[in-house]
Every structure is written in C-alpha cells, then in structure tokens.
Amino acid sequence: MSEAVRVGVLVDGPRPPRWQSELATAIAAEPGFQLALLGLRARPPADHEPGLLRLYRAIDQRLHRGRLSAFAPDDGAAPAATVMPLGPDAPPDAPPDAASLRACRLDVSVDLTGRAPEPSVVAHARASWALAWGEDGDTVAPAGLGEMVARDPTTVVRLTALESGGACREIDRVTVATHAYSLVKGRATAVAACRAMVLRSLKRVACPPAPAPGEARPAGAAAGSRAGHPAAAPGNGRLVGPLLRFAGALAGRAVEKALWDEFHWSIAIAAAGRDEPPDTVLRHATFREIAPPRDRFYADPFLFEHARGTFLFLEVCPYRTGRGAIAVCRIEPDGAPGPMSVALERPHHLSYPCVFECRGEVFMLPEAFGTGTVELYRCERFPDVWVPDTVLMRDVTAADATVLEHDGRWWMFVCIAPPGLSPDTELHLFHADDVRGPWRPHRLNPVLSDVRTARPAGRVWRDGRGLIRPAQDCALRYGHGLSFRRITTLTPDAYAEEHVAYVDPEVAQWSPHARGIHTWNAAGGFCAVDTCTSRFRGERWLGGGGGR
Fold first, then answer.
1. What is the mean pLDDT of the chain?
2. Cα–Cα distance measured from residue 300 to residue 323, given in angstroms and rounded to the nearest whole number
3. Which residues pair with 125 in a beta bridge?
4. Is the omega angle on the peptide bond into residue 383 within 30 degrees of 0, that is, cis?
5. Where are the domains positioned within the chain?
6. Exposed (0-12), middle (13-18) or buried (19+): which is 303, by Cβ within 10 Å?
7. Cross-strand partners of 271
C-alpha cells in the first residue's frame, strides 16, 4: 500500500469559518490522505467597511440566516493534525519554526484563506496550492461583492499552484452563478464549489492520471497569474446604485414568488433540415407553439423518429401537485401535434425524457432527481407503455442524463450536484460497453465546472463536422439560454469541447415575453424547443384550457 498523501490546510485563525474546518475534516477522512498540518493564519487587520455595506450585510444576513452556517466561526475540535498558528501575530510560545514545519513532511499545502501565500509553509511543502477568487486573483473584499456590483453573471473561484519566482499556475476552476441580490447566498454557493474542487484535485494527486492528448483539464491560466490579492470594498458613493439595485431585485423576487408562476414552460415545433445550424433555425424558422392548459406547463421536448412517424415526448407538470409525468403525441406531417397521452407516470417527479433506440429496442432515460437514481425504462408498446429495465446509478443527485452511442461505446452526460450545489454546475461523463452498464466514470470527472455550459439541454447529435452538445446557460437564472458546443475530444481519458453558437430567449419570436429557453432536440424533419415565461397565477383559474 502506498504512503498516504500528507496535506496541510491553512485556515482563517483559531476559529475559522465552518466551511474551512469542515473541508479540513473531509480531507482527513478521505482514504489515502493524512491531515498533517492545520495552519491557523492570523487574520489581517479588518478594513473599515463603508456604512452602507455594513447595513446591507446586516440585512442580508438576517434574511438568509439559513445560509450563514457555512461562515459561522467553528469551535469544534480540529482534526488529528499538528495545529500551528502562522503569520506575524503567532504567539511567541508557538512560533512557526522551520523544524516543526519540516517535521510535517507536507506533500501539499492548501491555503483556503484567499490571501497571498504564507512563506513559512510554502518553503516546506512539495506543492503549495491556494484558492483565489476572481478571474485574475484581484477581487473586492468581501469576496464575491465585486461581481455583484459589476453585474457579472458569474463568479470564478480558482485553485492555483505556486511556482518558482512567485508565479501561479491554475490547477482547476469553477464558475458559479452570481446571486442577484444576496452576498450570503452567492458566497455559500461558491464555497460549496470550492470544497468539491479541492477534494477532487487532491484525489488526482493521490492517483495521478496519465497525460492524454487533447485534454481539457486543467485549463491552465498564464504562468504569471496571481492568487489572493483582495482589494478594499468600494466606498459609499459607489455602493448607492448597486445597493438600490439589490433591493429592487429582492422586492421583485418577493412579488414574483407571491403572484407569478416564474417557470411557466411551453413547447414550440418547427420544420428543420437535418444539417441546418440550430441557432439559424431558432432565429428564422416559423414555429408552432404547443401551449399547455392553464393549470400546468410543458417542458423538455424530445423528438423521436419511429416507423409510425415522428413523436414528441415531453414533461407535463401540473402546478397543483408539482409532480411531472412524461406525455407523448404524434407530430403530423404539417407540424401539428396529435392527441396527447401519458406515456410514463410514477409516484415521483419525472422530466427530461431522453428517448433513444438500441439494437431494435426503444428506451427512455427520464430524470428522477428526487429518487437519487438514474433508471432506464424499456418500451413494451410504442409509444405509451414503458416498464422499468435497469437502475444504472444509485445514491446520486443526477439531472438531465443524456446518452450517446459513439465509436462502439455508450456515453452518458449528466449533471451531478455536490453537497451545497444545485445540479447546474458540474458535468460528469460516464462510459459503458452496453447501455445497461456497468457505467464507469470518466477519468477527468467533472469534465466541466461551469454554470454556463455544464447542464445538458438535449440529445447530442452529429453534424457534418462531428458531435454537437446542447447545454443550458444557468448563470442569470435556471434555463436562461442555450449554448451549442462542439465535442472535439471524447475518449475514456480525455474530453474537450468548444463554443459553436449561443441563443437567448429573445430568439423566441413566438413567445415575445420569454425569459428562458433550455431544451433543443431535432428528429424526423422537425425541431422542438421549450421557452419559459412568468405568468400571473390567477390565470390558472381564468378562462378555458383547464384548471384545478
């Protein structure tokens, strides 16, 4: 058995934020690792926060107490390790002397404080890593505020390695959504992503993957990039406008939740040639909307070409129950939908009906996020009799699993949510020799950690140049836009993709008030897409078209 990787974790002082101490505990519990040092970095003198910022933070923390636990000072017992105060304010009776640090025999030190490297630890670790907020390492304190003030829809947190000469090399990064009005909620999301990023990066040290051509990760930044140089918060004058905007967003959100169905999805169909670029079709084709009754929404359209014609599978979700089922209808040659019937209904919520054919049989892989499973269904009588076939995965928080057969192998693209994160940020890949499994994880999982491109948005297809993967952009909100990505490398050891096109809700001429567009599929000479609007809840009971 190989020797455990000895890790040093640097945190903020003797009472660090709970997320830092919990990450140190998780590292200590991970097989193959030993927490050899818990370094307590002296906190720098606090900058004077402008009065408006103090007021905003007090209100924000009061409104979102449930998300504050990650930042509460932790008084719990430290994991088994050498505990050592660090920095100029370390007590005289426990200085960070060279002999003590050398005795820790650190393979890796990980600084979670977001500040400049601690020289005493860097000198005695084989590798020194640090978290850095922001694209270039220069961020406004408190971390995450600068992105909110600048209206940047995303917040980047990077894991960097200190190299000779003081330069930093990027090991990994995660891009999460910037919250519209709450610094507490935005930071809680970011630190949850940090936890997942640090753990997976350490596991790669313990089991280093062999180099592979075309590998997308790590997405190395320039060698001269910096880490951990927080700047002072903007003054009261610069904060007036942003804080008024935050207040407006909070008030608007409260009104929307009280009076509006914020995710009222509907589906539209258009004729589409096999090789027409999807962004061109969305901008110029004539779409026919399939509007749902007032008491429910339609989403996640999947078209399937069958000997009997082209069929549309979709999620139907009544507002009263909030439990989706899978429905199906035949698309007539002129694009009109035929009568709709239920294809698959379970005691739990179903959505995203990924329908495909394998060796003459038709299968469906619907999302059942709340069950913690990814389950395959087989069609016994097309299109509306389906039976459970195989549970492909258990104990996973998996969303929008999408399968593809390519080069004699089956591939599954699926978003899996680490603790504290929504299933919009991390794309995982699995591969198998048979669609029923066993499914093996890709060597680089997660292959993407980016809220703008991670979540699947429909079937992967081939155009004249290769594979195209539709992805959701969830930065501004869930399902805001569609990104089309060309897969340039797809092997068990490597993955890479590049941008092809992007569309936002404004392309939906058939739905002038659309605020989201998040699924694209094409088959049988047609394409299908769904769009989202906000709708006054009173409309559920008004007029025809059903109701509860």
1. 88
2. 14
3. 106
4. yes
5. 5-234, 261-537
6. buried
7. 526
Measured CA to CA, the distance from residue 1 to residue 15 in angstroms comes to 36
Tens digits of per-residue pLDDT, 157-214?
A: 999 998 877 788 999 999 999 999 999 999 999 999 999 999 999 998 877 654 443 3
d(CA 21, CA 220): 28
* Tally of residues, the chain: 548
Structure tokens at 43: 């906190």
Q: How far is CA 240 from the centre of its chain?
A: 31
156-186 per-residue burial string, b: 16 or more CB within 10 A, e: under 16: bbbbbbbeeeebbbbbbbbbbbbbbbbbbbb
pLDDT above 60 (res 540):
no
Q: What does the H/E/C string look like for 13-60?
A: CCCCEHHHHHHHHHHHHCCCEEEEEEEEECCCCCCCCCHHHHHHHHHH
**Does the model's pTM come out above 0.85?**
yes
Q: What is the dihedral of CA 394, 395, 400, 405, to 10 degrees?
A: -40
Look at domain 261-537 and name its CATH class. mainly beta
Radius of gyration for the chain, computed over Cα atoms and rounded to the nearest angstrom: 25
Segment 392-433, tens digit of pLDDT: 999 999 999 999 999 999 999 999 999 888 899 999 999 999
Q: Is 544 helix (H, G, I), strand (E, B) or coil?
A: coil
Output the CATH code of domain 5-234: 3.40.50.170
Give CA separation, 102 vs 120, 122, 129, 347, 526, in Å. 10, 11, 17, 58, 66
